[in-house]
Design goal:
The chain is mainly α and 126 residues long. The chain has a single domain, classed as Multidrug-efflux Transporter Regulator, Chain: A, Domain 2. Helices cover 71% and strands 8% of the residues. The protein has five helices and three strands; from the N terminus they run βααββααα. A hairpin with a 2-residue loop joins strand 2 and strand 3. The protein is flat and about 75 Å long. This is MerR family transcriptional regulator.
Length: 126
């Protein structure tokens, strides 16, 4: 079975070992121990990737933990409904952000065109 050292994961994901230890402290990762050495399994690596992706998308660590818990255990209808609500909220937020990004991109393209026109109409100096 493939295992990883904390330094290998830190390098691969371009984060600090301190960040990885923090995720362990809050219960999102559960590496095995061999003495004082942490031994991470493939499952831990996948979870770390999901943690980092979730953070980039605006999920809190508590929400990420809920997603992991949902995956790890059978959940009640109430818990599944709650998770769907979290997913819906995040999806709506991301859609609004995407709309805002598209508007700003259009404004930047318009500004670029104006600048290029202005440069093209100016006579060369000297």
């Amino acid at each position: 079975m493939e295992t990883f050292k904390i330094s290998e994961l830190a390098k691969e994901f371009d984060i600090t070992t301190r960040s990885i230890r923090f995720y362990e402290d809050v219960g999102l990762l559960q590496p095995q121990r061999k003495g004082n050495t942490r031994v991470y399994q493939r499952r831990d690596k996948v979870r770390l990737r999901l943690i980092l992706r979730g953070k980039r998308l605006g999920f809190s660590l508590a929400e990420i933990r809920e997603l992991f818990d949902l995956y790890d255990t059978q959940q009640s209808q109430h818990q599944l409904s709650k998770m769907l609500s979290i997913i819906d909220d995040k999806e709506a937020l991301l859609r609004r952000q995407m709309e805002d990004i598209n508007i700003v991109m259009h404004e930047l393209q318009t500004a670029r065109k104006r600048c290029q026109r202005a440069l093209n109409t100016q006579s060369p100096l000297g």
